Amino acid sequence: MGVAYAASGRGATGRWPRWAGYAAGAWTLPAVGLALYWAAGGDTGYVLRDARIGPALALPVAALLLVGGIMGVSSVRRVGRQMPRWWPRAGLWAACALTGAGTFGFVMNALQLVFTGTVDDWPVFGVEALSATGAALYAAAALAFQRAAAGACARCGGTHPAAGAAGVAGRGAAAPLPAPRAVRRAAYAGALAFVPYMAMKTTWALGGTFAGVSGAEMVAEFERNGASGLVLALERYGVDFTTLSALLGVFLLLGLTHRWGQVFPRWAPPLTGRRVPRWLPLVPAWLGALTLGPYGVAATLLYLLPSAAGLTDLPDKEPLAGWAGWTVAACGIGAFAVYGTALGVAAWSYQRRTRPVCLS
User: Fold this and answer.
1) Model confidence over 88-119: pLDDT tens digits?
2) Is residue 275 within 8 Å of residue 262, measured between CB atoms?
């Protein structure tokens, strides 16, 4: 059975199933070139340059990206209808997972840029942004191919007379729907996960000591690490950009599960009553879920639990040494694990509940 894409809607965004595969293929060319540069010994922008097997992984990365690019173009060409369907799906989703892993650290770097005006490593930040773009393109190409191969509309995923060779007149916004109770509970758990971290920062702001570490000691530690004047000024009051980003993250999480995340509320003039563009909460939500969640879960399993069980050593760098360092780390890592997971659940629910339906 052939793969047929729905005819274009209004504007380039309505035609994304037709150009996503080509865009993924075009994106692949510079990405493969960059991976080959790393394989040849270059390290600019390479997040694995300090890893023992980092250089050896660059060539497999280039190969997998090349397969993803070829499958991307094939998914919108006749050849994609002649090969087994699982080939484009496997190649595109594998490339999506790989580039998604390359976004690790992007959210934290972006927040650091917003609050401090700079990042620790600009080339790495550029690669993380490039990876986020590639992951989105591979996912779009894979999703369009899967939907069309199943006989559904490649744009909305539904089945209607306009799917296939017929055209569609446009897209209609779905009516605002509340999040299921389980999703709301997950969101509340994600928000509460930041309470220990907030308590720690508040204690330092009030001049107290948390886990045997004072706020003054933390400011001195930031200063030794070369933090900017703005960061130091915030730290002296027990506030840093991660605290502010946590508040923004909780706001995002709650918005994904409440009606005001779909329709601008009265307290948001002059946008009151207008629909919230889907991409506005979904882009940061998925970036946060795919970076903070895996980091928090992996760090919990590989660092917090083994060290708590005595299988690995506790931190030994003052002032965050011993159980004091472990406790401070647990406040952040545990929050990332729970919040990142909850954000993924909420984003998936929001995406499904707000998915536009094509109008035939």
Assistant:
1) 999 999 999 999 888 888 888 887 787 677 88
2) yes
Average pLDDT on 158-176 reads 56
CA 14 – CA 94 distance, rounded (Å): 25
User: Which H helix or E strand runs over 316?
Assistant: strand 316-317
Residue 277, Cβ density class (10 Å: 0-12 exposed, 13-18 middle, ≥19 buried): exposed
Side chain identity at residue 317, one-letter code: K
Q: How far apart are alpha carbons 61 and 46 in whole angstroms?
A: 12
Size (the chain), residues: 360
* Contact in structure between 239 and 205 (CB atoms under 8 Å): yes
283-294 in b/e form (b: 16+ CB < 10 A) is ebbbbbbbbbbb
- pTM (two decimals): 0.77
Alpha helices in the chain (DSSP H): 11-14, 16-39, 54-74, 78-82, 86-101, 106-116, 122-149, 181-192, 195-205, 215-224, 229-236, 241-257, 279-299, 305-308, 322-353
d(C-alpha 20, C-alpha 15), whole Å: 9
